[in-house]
Write a structure and sequence with these properties.
The structure is a homodimer. By secondary structure, the first copy, chain A, is α/β, with parallel strands linked by helices. Chain A has three domains: about 270 residues, TIM Barrel, CATH 3.20.20.150; about 140 residues, 2,3-Dihydroxybiphenyl 1,2-Dioxygenase, domain 1; about 190 residues, 2,3-Dihydroxybiphenyl 1,2-Dioxygenase, domain 1 (Roll). Chain A is about 35% helix and about 25% strand. In chain A, the strands form three sheets. A nine-stranded mixed β-sheet of chain A has the order 14-15-16-13-9-12-11-10-17. In chain A, strand 1, helix 1 and strand 2 form a beta-alpha-beta unit. In chain A, about 55% of the residues are buried. At the A-B interface, helix 2, helix 4, helix 18 and helix 20 of A face helix 2, helix 4, helix 18 and helix 20 of B. Chains A, B: Pathway: Aromatic compound metabolism; 3,4-dihydroxybenzoate biosynthesis. Chains A, B: Its EC number is 4.2.1.118. Chains A, B: GO terms for molecular function: 3-dehydroshikimate dehydratase activity; dioxygenase activity; metal ion binding.
Chain lengths: ~625, ~625
Amino acid sequence: MHRAIATVSLSGTLRQKLEAIAAAGFDGIELFEADFVNFRGTAAELRRIVADLGLSIDLYQPFRDFEGMPEAQFHRSLERAERKFDLMEAMGAPLVLCCSNTSPLSVNDPARAAAQLHELAERAARRNLRVGFEALAWGRHTSRYAQAWDIVQRADHPHLGLILDSFHTLSLKDDPAGIAAIPGEKIFFVQMADAPLLSMDVLQWARHHRSFPGQGDFDVVGFFEQVLRAGYTGPLSLEIFNDIFRETPNRRTAVDAMRSLLYLESETRERLANGNAPAQPQRVELFNPPPAPALSGLSFIEFAADEASAATLGALLGQLGFRRVGRHRSKAVTLYRQGGIHFIVNAQPDSFARQRFEAHGTSVCALGVRCADPLAAVGRASAMRSQRHDSPVGPNELRVPAIVAPGGNLIHFVPEALGANGLYETDFILEDAGPGDSDAGLTRIDHVALGLALDQLDTWVLFTRAVLGLEPGESLELADPFGLIRSRGVANADRSLRLVLNVSLSQRTRTARTLSVTGGGAVHHIALDCDDIFDTVARLRANGTRFVPISDNYYDDLATRIDVAPELLARMREAGVLFDRSAAGDYLHIYTESFDGGLFFEVAQRVGGYDAYGALNAPARMASQAQQPQQD
Amino acid sequence: MHRAIATVSLSGTLRQKLEAIAAAGFDGIELFEADFVNFRGTAAELRRIVADLGLSIDLYQPFRDFEGMPEAQFHRSLERAERKFDLMEAMGAPLVLCCSNTSPLSVNDPARAAAQLHELAERAARRNLRVGFEALAWGRHTSRYAQAWDIVQRADHPHLGLILDSFHTLSLKDDPAGIAAIPGEKIFFVQMADAPLLSMDVLQWARHHRSFPGQGDFDVVGFFEQVLRAGYTGPLSLEIFNDIFRETPNRRTAVDAMRSLLYLESETRERLANGNAPAQPQRVELFNPPPAPALSGLSFIEFAADEASAATLGALLGQLGFRRVGRHRSKAVTLYRQGGIHFIVNAQPDSFARQRFEAHGTSVCALGVRCADPLAAVGRASAMRSQRHDSPVGPNELRVPAIVAPGGNLIHFVPEALGANGLYETDFILEDAGPGDSDAGLTRIDHVALGLALDQLDTWVLFTRAVLGLEPGESLELADPFGLIRSRGVANADRSLRLVLNVSLSQRTRTARTLSVTGGGAVHHIALDCDDIFDTVARLRANGTRFVPISDNYYDDLATRIDVAPELLARMREAGVLFDRSAAGDYLHIYTESFDGGLFFEVAQRVGGYDAYGALNAPARMASQAQQPQQD
């Protein structure tokens, strides 16, 4: 496919945008008019800059409030169009986007709209330009693609065609199925946008909250499937109005943009291949990466430390019931184990971990995920524009393929074939394999929670979907005493791998302060499962672990909200354990106090098919943490 | 009036909130349930803390999803209510807020709702507690106060009354006039909230975007007038769900909150006094401050500097056509003049200005506004909880009363009786009174634009309304290459005093970077009027002033948007002058390059009754500034 992006989707000056777009591997751009109006150079100069970057200008946009106007306005608009055509000729833009009229002066008369668009197309044809007509979701008389297509058919001019934008169709809950019946060559251009489901005015939604395909809640794959069934062979483009993208460094946004198109193509390719209806003859080549990896849980979590903090962290892990079970063959790296959980503390000088330690203090620097075919997983990641990471490997050590996650931490793909301990038996000199006296009954890693900067949430949602094959859950807003937290879980199908993405909208919450200590994309807590939380908590307290205290009032309130057995309520109250219930099951959990500037642990017990993270209880935890520093 | 505020309106732990509320002079609180659930103390302990702070708990809230339920749920809810009544008794809260049911289980049956509320009130009465019923704007069957009042009348229980919230009425555009007919003693509690007019789901609007009275667009005065006409004598309270208040240090928010109530009372008092309808006998005493001052423009702008930067700034002012006309009698302070504009450069060691210089660099540290009665203006400001500022005064100097604006700059009130130069003749040794050779034809200060942190916009809107008697205009969103800017003008009735409040939603715009250099509430540009912008710009260029260059494409585009005479367009293109047109007149303007980290000047010519600030052209300026550092 010819892949393009509208300049409005990125931050920066026009030149900076073009450089970022070219660097991310796009083929072309949609030029947003305001970017040209404020550009200090001529159309011919822009043409040269764009060409030198290996790009084409595929579309000039938008041309507004044209069709269905009274005669006086119509003639004035034709004049306006001629001036835009002058520019398009000079910059080499072959197509202009004419969006449906929003003016109160416009009349609801498809025949007039068609006649006026015919005249516009005739003017364009004289210069060998083309006009694409698009239904805006908030167009005054034309808001759906079927209406726009009706007008284009009535106008019946070879230089007039249809422009489709997934946002305008999916935001109105319009059915894209009819697109497949439109002749592909009459669709002149396709813009893809995703969006979170929001209850707001569609114009505000469109102008501020669109996102790249795979970052939102729309069925963009279903939309694009219909476009391909129509036989469309033109550019695949992104037109994203997003307040956060306006602020985010544009190189990062451009990489996300390209990843979103590759993901969209590959998902749509799969859907077409699996579809029952006979597809049109394949007229375009869709991106075909290795399949998303089948992951089966976290093999290990690696912490970056120096000698001193490694000792402190080791003592803390001891309190949590972990036992030191190995030393690395060649490096200052220690292995801790409890149940099926492995923690690695890496204090090796001159290592990747040490760089992370120096930048962010004691913090998680890598996750090890188990998978059947690590090389295929890295192949998928590379195809989806993630960077591969190769560490130096010593003698008698395994090479575990790794990639760089957004924010700079590593994700290692650990071969399942190694079994539970194979990796550690090879790389480590194991000291003791049995459970220690301090074992607290922690069995596996339930989830890892990341604290993200506001502009990283969409990046992570797309990364985890496209690269790791995870799927996002519901997006929640939680009240911290000093601001709101947005929280979203992502998990694989069998729930053996769960990540929770937390964003602080405020700079003053603990989540935000953790970020400033440990950098964006930082792990701010690790949740560990157990089979009997009361037994585990008792053992952990005996080991010296301190938990965040929970107000008695929480339990009084809980009893009015949920029908909990009185004896269970009493045990939870005594132990300081929090509780949540869904239709499928229960969640019992408790949080430790923070270690070294932020990181803390959660102990959890899932009962039945409970599939969330006790987010409703996070405010109790955050309020308790906020009360921590002072006597209250 | 008994003044109260809901704890949900402020950030912090419950204890921190209570301390801020008490410090701001409130009489009582609404206790938001989640604040108590997460409070680490008993209800009795809370009662003691609140009493020690001199506060009362006037309301416990909310009690949800009660009325109109099937029998099973109803009995469960009564149990839930008894547990809440236990708490209320222990903490000394006399009244609970029961908001209209949003549950899909509820039935549309006012008689059943009334019977169930009667039973709830009966239970409350046994403990001498009361129940207030409130219509939520998104209640499933009851969303308007008239419906809630109908149910309260049917229930007919002395311990059941109505709770009114301006947000729920005004957000639905419901008419508050009917409130005056409700017996005042059946209104148990009144919550006041303002809000900006937003096109979004009313629940999202209510949960995230309410503001204090005077900060939004609702006619809160008209609402409160009806409440008083009803004969209401209970608490006047604020229940504000606002994302930004959740993040803002709560002492500042609490002062804004108190100011908003004082402003609401005084405005409502005036409206009642001026009303035609015979008011009820005055049953409560409303706040009665000195009237808002009649201001008549800016007398001077004062810059903070040290010796070196004073010289640099002096040279810049020289380029702008200003002439040094005086030295202060006793301080290192210099006076510059052009037309009716006075700039003061204050480099006096150990002065307020020097403190500002050391904190924020060369920057505006004070505005002098002309007014008829400066002492009354300071009295108004003090009554509205602004801090008075007294500077040391030397021999033969005038004492000009001053107050501290949000962010720390000063506003001096200069007596009109002094005439144009009286102040300067007294305090300065004047060197030369005539216009110099470099005079560029600048005549007066058009407006002063402030760069504000996100959490300061509402504070400033309320400050300028309540303390200075200005009125806000439209709120606009403008695109900077690195993020959005929100901009709102405030002005007095005759437009002799105009301020523009700009907020950067992004950290990466020039506006945001100016803030980080010069502190919140900083002046980022000063607009100066002239009578012939082409003549003035030519003279300024001859003096060495450098202006932000504007793209040729801007003028090509302007010609397609607005019908400007070709010769005027050509002159603007040549001079780099920007243009805007309203129905009332035209605005021609141009921006200088930035001085010393941020501050710049605008030169403007207003033609006819143009009443805005050329905001549509701000993106052209911001894009140009963004292209400044690099060759483009």
